[in-house]
Structure formats: structure tokens, C-alpha cells
Design a protein that fits this description.
Elements (H helix, E strand, L loop, with lengths): L8 H27 L6 H37 L14 H6 L7 H4 L1
Helix pairs in contact: 1-2
Length: 110
């Protein structure tokens, strides 16, 4: 971090790219787990299917986060990162620390 407390854009970009790698690995593991369920026992298959629904929901959330991260990386490239896409105000550094891919300031996110 810089002395002003603001995280430099290259560090934010590296953070976002690292998260993409992490999510990619997680989604790959979910896919492998879903593909591994072929139990002929109906009761066991029902239990696995319940678990699959949880995995699928987790995967969908991961895909949504990947889209948000890619959009944030585009904003870094075009120079608009850190600016609210709705109102044009700066997004607070503390908000970016928690949700680095957010396109909205706190007020617009409400």
C-alpha cells in the first residue's frame, strides 16, 4: 500500500487476477466432483444429488464472481476502475479492499 493508504492499481489488478485463478481451480474441482457421481444405489444417488445442488449453486456463484472480476479488469484497462458506474463518484478505498471487483459505490449499492 502507498503512504496515502490507497492500494495501487497494479496491486489491485494482481489481486483480481489471483482471485480468477483461485475461482478457476475451485470451479474445476466442482466440475470433477459433479462428474464423479454415478452411483447405481438410488438412496446414495439421492444424497449425492442433494450435494450436487449445493455444488451447482456454488459454481454459479463462482461464475458470477468471475464475470464481475473480468469487468473490473476491463475498468482497470480503460481507466475507470474505482469510479462508480452508476453515479460517477469515487468508490471508497475501504469498499474496494473488501470487494475489489465492485462497480458501485456504497450509496448506489444500497
Amino acid at each position: 500500500m502507498q503512504a496515502s493508504g490507497k492500494t495501487p492499481i497494479p496491486a489491485r489488478k494482481a489481486q483480481l487476477e489471483g482471485r480468477l485463478v483461485e475461482l478457476g481451480a475451485r470451479l474445476e474441482a466442482i466440475e470433477e466432483e459433479l462428474d464423479s457421481h454415478h452411483d447405481p444405489d438410488w438412496e446414495e444417488l439421492a444424497v449425492q444429488r442433494e450435494g450436487d445442488e449445493v455444488l451447482e449453486a456454488t459454481g454459479e456463484a463462482g461464475l458470477a464472481e468471475i464475470r464481475q472480476i473480468r469487468n473490473a479488469l476491463k475498468r482497470i484497462e480503460d481507466g475507470s476502475y474505482g469510479t462508480c458506474v452508476r453515479c460517477g463518484d469515487a468508490i471508497a478505498e475501504a469498499r474496494l479492499d473488501v470487494i475489489p471487483w465492485t462497480p458501485l459505490c456504497r450509496s448506489c449499492a444500497k
